[in-house]
Amino acid sequence: MANAKIGVLVMSYGTPESMDGIEEYYTHIRRGHAPTPEQLAELTARYDAVVGGVFPLRENTNRQAEGLQEALDAAAPGRYSVYQGLKHARPYIEDGVEAMAAAGIKQAVGIVLAPHYSTMSVGSYMSRAQEKAEQLGVAFRAIESYHLHPKLVEALVKRVRDAHAELAGLTGEGQPIKVLFSAHSLPVRIREANDPYEQQLLDTSSLVAEGAGVTDWGFTWQSAGRTREPWLGPDILETLKETAEAGYKGVLSAPIGFVSEHLEVLYDIDIEAQAAAKELGVRLVRIDMLGTDPLYMETLADSIEQASRAVYV
């Protein structure tokens, strides 16, 4: 007998389960091509700088999946069952769909732990999930974005406001502060396809800045891939230099394209950008990540409920 529950496939980029899993993870990102010894050494060094050989990063995603299950249970007891599907690590997206089907689930909703849609990011997650769901006879509804959800905006506004006040205390009264919203860069070619990613990020940034009472802000990019094609810029390291040259002594980093602490936050901002800021004589403070903030969990749960009500009885 089919399970009457609605399956929820919560997806994210994925991270290795331990330092020993970095090579397999990097190979999957490179579509089956093993990294060179130099590439592997560099990525391993970055993880080691962040976690010191102890690997808690996977737990961030696990906690978010558990928090989402709790939020869904509170909103609609017994209606939803949450499964994980990762893009580049186990359980892979296809594994999550298979687990649903094995449990007898026939109706599912997919959501990514990233609020903004791009065909190259969220779109690729959804296409993999959809393909596997069709193979296994599971009806699948994709939630493409939730970047303007009021509870998401509220959670980010609070973080920007709190961090802005902290930074003002560190830099001194009257010192100008620049707020830099950021997200993972993507190849410039997404603009040719009228991909909504960039505009969605700007829309979120604008709403959050307005809600936090911030007028002096900008948007920058980070964590670009190392490929031959051009990626969206300017990079945060370039923007920091320009901001310092403009006379700012305080910069607030608000990486709104990410929802938890992982390498792109803990290394790219907290180590790399922080070192650059120090060299430039700029005080850099980052907002807290969303993690399992109740408002973020409610954002996800609300989005899932709305999507499932639209198509499933």
UniProtKB/TrEMBL annotation:
Fe-coproporphyrin III binds at residues 13, 30, 46-47, 125. It catalyses: Fe-coproporphyrin III + 2 H(+) = coproporphyrin III + Fe(2+). Pathway: Porphyrin-containing compound metabolism; protoheme biosynthesis. InterPro entries: Ferrochelatase, Ferrochelatase_AS, Ferrochelatase_C, Ferrochelatase_N. It comes from the Bacteria. Its EC number is 4.99.1.9. The keyword Nuclease does not apply. This is Coproporphyrin III ferrochelatase. It comes from Paenibacillus glycinis. It is found in: Cytoplasm. Keywords: Cytoplasm, Heme biosynthesis, Iron, Lyase, Metal-binding, Porphyrin biosynthesis. Belongs to the ferrochelatase family. Gene3D superfamilies: 3.40.50.1400. It is an enzyme of class 4 (lyase). The gene is hemH. One of its GO terms (molecular function) is lyase activity. Fe(2+) binds at residues 184, 264. NCBIfam families: hemH (TIGR00109). Involved in coproporphyrin-dependent heme b biosynthesis. Catalyzes the insertion of ferrous iron into coproporphyrin III to form Fe-coproporphyrin III.
